[in-house]
TrEMBL record:
Catalytic reaction(s) noted: [protein]-peptidylproline (omega=180) = [protein]-peptidylproline (omega=0)
Organism encoding this protein: Labrus bergylta (ballan wrasse)
Domain of life: Eukaryota
One term of GO molecular function: peptidyl-prolyl cis-trans isomerase activity
Entry keyword Translocase: no
Basic and acidic residues compositional bias, start-end: 56-68
Annotated stretches, region: Disordered: 1-77
Matching InterPro entries: FKBP4/5/8-like, PPIase_dom_sf, PPIase_FKBP_dom, TPR-like_helical_dom_sf, TPR_rpt
Acidic residues: compositionally biased ranges: 28-46
TPR repeats by residue range: 291-324
Entry-linked PANTHER family: PEPTIDYL-PROLYL CIS-TRANS ISOMERASE FKBP8 (PTHR46512:SF3), PEPTIDYLPROLYL ISOMERASE (PTHR46512)
Signal peptide: none
Keyword annotations from UniProtKB, A to Z: Isomerase, Membrane, Repeat, Rotamase, TPR repeat, Transmembrane, Transmembrane helix
Name of the protein this chain belongs to: peptidylprolyl isomerase
């Protein structure tokens, strides 16, 4: 079963993380740590003589430095992550450190994407995204945080922080391809207040974030997909101070259910079965007859070994959509597995109890034999007694 959903272009951008309490995978710090330029010291500490003083030569050196001004940086490239896989070089200075964007802000950039052999792959003007939300490749999300407004920079990134081992069809990027990105930061603004956002814009924004999750899912980046779906849910579920009509409310619910279904699919890929089950339950709370939620819930229950509940859930889904071949196939597979499991359990119980069937039949045979002997003995004893009485009567008669 696949999610066929229309792609929606959204002009609005998501809210600030600080204002709305959102969390992002980029905040975890598990995979990388952003290095601030302030932490980089290009000049080695001054040498001292054996006596611990600076001496005459050191004083002359400092005086010369004051006259000539600060020395040029040793390295033009900034190693963003400290692993030589993501580097940034300033081409044109910006407006200063105070103009650097913050996570959760909306940024607008001009971008040229090229392969390392110089081939231009894509050129985008006025590309907008929310910094830190995973809307773009990691190389951009990390490097733009270190740019100043008006700055132009060249970014070299390993495939790990770009399109990875799968590459991309649009733009056309080969698998495992390192890239050169030419970026100009044009603008950085605060995200809109979700509570004051009109319902139509909120629906469009949540749908936009969900589509970003779909892109991550198609690339196999399931953890980032979950992150994008979570952000979309937070947008859709945020409280509103603006009136909303029933039709818009139903649209928001529809966006929520789509996000929850897609999140469950991503969590299944990550083997997070409990989380996937919760996502399915939440989706069914909004739409009890949602086929996709029922199908995924059945799969999760089956993977957890709950075959009986899984079969019941899939039968419920099949009743709603009898012609669905995917549900038919999954249900048949589960019924077979369930039968095999029950047969194996019965065999195990028999083995644990020492074959109770044969034991009970033996006991019955022994009991039957003992009863047969008892009746035979009783019959014989009775016959002897009757014979003795008859003999006594005959003797008495003769006498």
């Amino acid at each position: 079963m696949t999610d066929k959903e229309e792609t929606m272009e959204v002009s609005d951008s998501p809210p600030s993380e600080k204002k709305n309490g959102r969390t992002s995978l980029l905040d975890s710090g598990e995979d990388f740590e952003v290095v601030d330029e302030e932490d980089i010291d290009d000049d080695p500490p001054p040498l001292e003589d054996a006596g611990g003083g600076k001496g005459k030569h050191a004083d002359e050196s400092e005086k010369e430095k004051e006259e000539t001004g600060p020395s040029a940086p040793v390295e033009e490239w900034l190693d963003v992550l400290g692993n030589d896989q993501l580097k940034k070089k300033v081409l044109e200075d910006g407006e200063g450190r105070d103009s650097r964007p913050q996570k959760g802000q909306n940024v607008r950039i001009n971008l040229k994407t090229s392969l390392t052999d110089g081939k231009l792959v894509e050129e985008q003007h006025d590309l907008s995204f929310t910094l830190g939300d995973g809307d773009v490749i990691q190389a951009l999300d990390l490097s733009v945080q270190l740019m100043e407004k008006g700055e132009k920079a060249l970014i070299q990134t390993d495939a790990k922080y770009a399109y990875g081992a799968r590459g991309s069809y649009e733009p056309e990027i080969p698998p495992n391809a390192p890239l050169c990105l030419e970026v100009e930061l044009k603008e950085a603004t605060d995200a809109p207040d979700l509570e004051m956002l009109p319902p139509a814009e909120k629906i469009a924004l949540a749908s936009h974030k969900r589509e970003k999750g779909n892109v991550h899912y198609q690339r196999g980046d399931y953890a980032f997909a979950v992150n994008s779906y979570s952000i979309a849910l937070q947008v859709a579920e945020s409280s509103s101070k603006v009136d909303i009509n029933p039709e818009e409310e139903n649209e928001l619910i529809d966006v929520k259910v789509k996000c929850l279904n897609n999140m469950a699919a991503s969590q299944l890929k990550l083997d997070h079965y409990d989380a996937a089950l919760k996502s399915c339950v939440s989706a069914l709370a909004h739409q009890p007859d949602n086929i996709k939620a029922l199908f995924r819930m059945g799969k999760v229950l089956a993977l957890q070994g709950e075959y009986t509940e899984a079969i019941q859930t899939l039968r419920r889904a099949l009743k709603l959509e009898p012609s669905n071949k995917t549900i038919h196939a999954e249900l048949s597979k589960l019924v077979k597995k369930n039968s095999e499991q029950r047969g194996a359990e019965q065999a195990m119980y028999k083995k644990m109890l020492g074959n109770p069937t044969s034991g009970s039949s033996t006991q019955k045979h022994r009991a039957k034999s003992s009863w047969g002997l008892s009746w035979k003995w009783l019959f014989g004893a009775t016959a002897v007694a009757i014979g003795g009485v008859a003999l006594s009567v005959v003797i008495a008669a003769r006498n």
